[in-house]
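To the wet lab folks,

You asked to see what we're planning to order before we commit. Fair enough. Below is the target structure as tokens, and below that is the sequence we designed to fit it. If anything looks off to you, flag it before the synthesis order goes out.
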């Protein structure tokens, strides 16, 4: 009996220990359940929702670009594309065969889809083809029962209605590359496009807008079940430019009479650019969805370099269009007066070297106005020698030669205005007197862009105000506003130079090209910049005419002009690459300045925050 009692006591003790252990374990589990389900309920609810609900970014609508009167230049239109989900399509190759009967697919597109299908999860949609026509969409919709795994999606595609006319100004958008990634998640969205050149690049951040979001429910493997909510985000800012598309189109068409040419038209009072054209141009629509290899190679191999914006990146010796600045430097320096004369026998001797005037027999006695009108080289050889290269360079810099103008588009080149210090620092050689003589007629080391020459002209005829050229008029709600400062040149000296430019078309080198309409007459300056000197062998062979030489060996033809003569408002520069002489550039400039005055784009624009006004027919000229 004692043995049974001891056994009972041992069992009871063990039961108590085991029960206590179980009770403690249940207490720990209960406490942990309380912590998880009550105290940390919110935290784990968020984690569970994140497993069930995905937040996906939606690309924002890119801001439009409008011309100065509200005409759309860069817009977004619906982009229908066909997508394929591999797990629903089954045999991808067979599906593509059936699709090809409705929507033609190139071999490159087939290979890309097959490659993407191998690399992506079976439930992730793959883009098969972009930019479908409405007819293709309807045929796909009708045949959808026979095309399992294929679906139509609607997105946006950037479009440029005026194509080549605006390619260099607007630039284009393209796919995001590894170099473009900045950490912004929207850049990793499939098919997202960013600005690559022109205004599309300059204002890319503002035109992108803010990404939207789509809240979708997914299953355990990440497949979308349904969309729960959607926020479209904020569209990008609208950009209104100073360009008048009517004048831009006209200028681009007018330049097509030449192999390679460029022109700029701007407002002499505020620097607004009405037209900035470079021929040949390119169609920016080619780059929206990705340009094909043969087309790209064709653009790159074109001898007339259509991808280069010659108006801001072409650098040319300004030739005789530079002579006004030499004259102004001499007047400001006191080296000569407007009525002091220089005799031109057809050359200037300096040391053992003879510098020839373009007129072999010479011009005779020339004062400043007649020298500008007749473009007498000998006159400017002499006054340039008196002033010196450094003072000429200082004056040229004040009129935008040899430095960037600050244009609000990337890609502008600075040209070159040499000085003594520049040559020593760059070439390690001292400046020679003969080099000043050559630079005095816009040759030698001097180079300028057409935009710089147009700005120079504007600053000469607007009373000496340092206008800064710009293409942006309004960005979102912000409107360009800038009061140009004074250059600080004596008005009477400017008046002499402008009088010489008026005489150029009245009785000088461009008298044949004056605008005939009364009240719309122009002034200006012709220029021919030498590309390659005629050798003695060529002279002996009789090859002295420009038209007898290969195109690339011919001189450039230039003309800078302004209109109307009284109270000028429009300044223009035309450069015809290898045109032979200024006689090819002057009539183009005449036609452009006449058209600009007829259209009158300089009239007041809309105020900030007000919808741009599309001009009535009467306003369109």
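Sequence we intend to order:
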């Amino acid at each position: 009996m004692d043995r049974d009692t001891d056994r009972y006591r041992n069992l009871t003790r063990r039961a108590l220990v085991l029960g206590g252990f179980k009770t403690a374990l249940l207490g720990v589990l209960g406490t942990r359940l309380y912590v998880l389900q009550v105290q940390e309920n919110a935290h784990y609810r968020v984690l569970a929702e994140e497993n069930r609900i995905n937040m996906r970014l939606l690309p924002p609508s890119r801001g439009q670009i409008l011309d100065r009167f509200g005409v759309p230049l860069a817009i977004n239109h619906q982009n229908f594309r066909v997508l394929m989900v591999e797990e629903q399509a089954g045999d991808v190759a067979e599906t593509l065969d059936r699709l090809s009967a409705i929507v033609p697919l190139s071999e490159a597109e087939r290979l890309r889809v097959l490659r993407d299908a191998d690399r992506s999860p079976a439930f992730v949609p793959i883009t098969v083809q972009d930019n479908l026509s409405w007819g293709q969409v309807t045929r796909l919709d009708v045949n959808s029962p026979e095309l399992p795994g294929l679906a139509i999606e609607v997105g946006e595609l950037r479009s440029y209605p005026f194509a080549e006319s605006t390619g260099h100004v607007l630039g284009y958008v393209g796919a995001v590359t590894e170099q473009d990634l900045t950490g912004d998640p929207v850049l990793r969205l499939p098919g997202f496009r960013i600005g690559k050149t022109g205004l599309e690049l300059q204002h890319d951040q503002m035109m992108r807008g803010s990404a939207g979001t789509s809240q979708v429910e997914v299953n355990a493997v990440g497949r979308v079940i349904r969309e729960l909510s959607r926020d479209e985000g904020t569209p990008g800012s609208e950009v209104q430019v100073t360009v008048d598309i009517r004048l831009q189109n006209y200028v681009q068409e007018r330049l097509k009479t030449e192999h390679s040419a460029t022109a700029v038209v701007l407002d002499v009072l505020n620097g607004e650019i009405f037209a900035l054209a470079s021929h040949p141009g390119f169609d920016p629509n080619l780059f929206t969805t990705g340009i094909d290899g043969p087309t790209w190679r064709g653009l790159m191999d074109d001898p007339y370099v259509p991808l280069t914006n010659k108006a801001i990146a072409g650098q040319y010796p300004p030739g005789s269009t530079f002579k006004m600045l030499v004259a102004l430097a001499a007047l400001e320096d006191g080296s000569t007066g407007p009525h002091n004369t220089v005799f031109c026998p057809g050359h200037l001797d300096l040391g053992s070297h003879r510098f020839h005037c373009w007129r072999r027999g010479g011009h005779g006695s020339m004062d400043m106005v007649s020298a500008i009108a007749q473009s007498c080289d000998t006159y400017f050889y002499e006054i340039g020698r008196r002033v010196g290269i450094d003072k000429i360079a200082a004056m040229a810099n004040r009129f935008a030669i040899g430095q960037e103008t600050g244009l609000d588009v990337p890609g502008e080149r600075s040209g070159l205005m040499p000085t003594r210090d520049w040559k020593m620092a760059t070439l390690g050689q001292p400046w020679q007197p003969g080099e000043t003589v050559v630079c005095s007629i816009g040759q030698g080391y001097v180079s300028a862009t057409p935009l710089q020459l147009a700005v120079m002209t504007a600053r000469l005829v607007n009373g000496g105000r340092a206008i800064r050229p710009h293409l942006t008029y309004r960005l979102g709600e912000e409107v360009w506003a800038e009061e140009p400062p004074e250059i600080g040149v004596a008005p009477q000296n400017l008046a002499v130079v402008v009088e010489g430019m008026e005489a150029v078309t009245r009785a000088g080198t461009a008298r044949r090209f004056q605008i005939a309409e009364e009240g719309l007459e122009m002034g200006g300056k012709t220029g021919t910049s030498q590309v390659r000197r005629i050798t003695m062998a060529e002279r002996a062979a009789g090859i002295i005419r420009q038209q007898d030489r290969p195109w690339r060996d011919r001189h450039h033809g230039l003309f800078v002009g302004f209109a109307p003569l009284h109270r000028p408002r429009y300044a223009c520069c035309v450069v015809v690459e290898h045109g032979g002489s200024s006689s090819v550039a002057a009539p183009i400039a005449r036609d452009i300045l006449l058209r600009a005055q007829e259209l009158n784009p300089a009239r007041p624009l809309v105020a900030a925050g007000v919808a741009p006004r599309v001009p009535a027919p009467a306003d369109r000229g």
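Structural context that might help your review: DSSP finds 22 helices and 21 strands in the chain. The mean pLDDT is 86.

Thanks,
Computational group
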